[in-house]
Structures are given as structure tokens and as C-alpha cells.
Amino acid sequence: MPVCPVCNSLAAAKKDCPRCGKILLDAGLLQDFYDDYSAYLDQGIYEDGYRHYNEVYCIHLFYCPHCHFDVTLGFKRLEEDRLMD
Ligand SMILES: [Zn+2]
Ligand SMILES: [Zn+2]
User: Fold this and answer.
1) pTM of the full structure
2) pLDDT tens for residues 53-74?
3) How far is the CA of 66 from the centre of ligand 1 (A)?
4) Is 59 within 8 Å of 52 (Cβ atoms)?
5) Which of 26, 63, 64, 79 is close enough to 70 for a disulfide, judged by CB 3.0 to 4.6 Å?
6) For residue 62, which ligand has an atom nearest its CA?
């Protein structure tokens, strides 16, 4: 079963905000985020962002606390036996 290296704290995901240059924060798994916030998010965004979530990629939501920019990034899942190396 492939696992996401970011979810398992095996890789740190660091991204700069393209708008203001501050470090984006990992808001966690997209599915977790939308469980909490789907009530007031546009349904179209939900479906589009969710589309790429699959067995190959784990989708994380990153957001900027400074300018409120947000972006979803996909991280390729790794086979567990590869993580042991
Ligand atoms: Zn993940
Ligand atoms: Zn920003």
C-alpha cells in the first residue's frame, strides 16, 4: 500500500507563496480540510480539487496566512518498502 511521505512526516513540504513570498502552511489533507469547511466553500472548487486525489497522489492544501492565497499540491505516494531504505 503506497503511502504519502508528507503525511508520514518523511518529507517536509516547503513552498513559498507566489504572491507575497511567505512560507505556505500545510493545511493537511484536502479531504480533512473540506470535511471541516465544505459548508461554506463553493462546490465547484471542491469537485475540481478533489478530482486529482487518488492512489498515486496525495493532495495537500497549502495556504498563506499572510495574503490568504491557497493552492493544492499533489505528492506522489511511495511504496512502503522503499521507505525503509
Ligand atoms: Zn499526504
Ligand atoms: Zn502570501
Assistant:
1) 0.62
2) 567 888 888 999 999 999 888 8
3) 23
4) yes
5) 63
6) 2
Nearest by Cα to 72 from 57, 62, 64: 62
pLDDT by residue (tens digit) across 1-44? 788 888 888 877 888 999 999 999 888 665 555 555 444 444 44
Ligand 2 center to 62 CA (angstroms): 11
- 2: Cβ contacts below 8 Å, ≥ 6 apart: 55, 56, 77, 78, 79, 80
Closest ligand to residue 10's CA: 1
Compute the distance from residue 61 Cα to the ligand 2 centre, in Å.
Answer: 14
Q: How far is the CA of 80 from the centre of ligand 2 (A)?
A: 34
- DSSP label at residue 71: E
Measure the CA–CA gap between 40 and 34, rounded to whole angstroms: 10
CA 78 to ligand 2 centroid distance, Å: 30
